[in-house]
Amino acid sequence: MFKSRPRSLASVLTLALVASSSLAGCAYKSNYRQTNFDVQTQPVPQDKVKVVKSKDDLVTPYTELGIYRGRAPSVKEAMDVAKNQCGREGAELYVLNVEPYESGGVWNVDGVCAVFSDAPAEG
Length: 123
Fold this sequence. Notes:
alpha+beta, Dodecin subunit-like, five-stranded mixed beta sheet, 28% helix, globular
């Protein structure tokens, strides 16, 4: 009976260690949701995706392709991942809904992936 008790304690401690280490890996999160299924695009290199601080800063009409939200340990990493995801979806722009903000020790970004268009500007 005593032999199984240390084994149970070891199992519980191992499980706690695995759970805590997996929580530490939650500093990165990436979520893209396509909102426009009518526009056909080709991938764009990450360095060609332009970040725009707000919809109000755009004077050129654009078309939204999808919404990207993500987080990373630094604002640079969060923005790089956002630009990469938007570029993979064929977006020329990443238009921020809000400025990047820090919460819980990680940086969060929230915006839309978009392409320049001939239609009137959204907003």
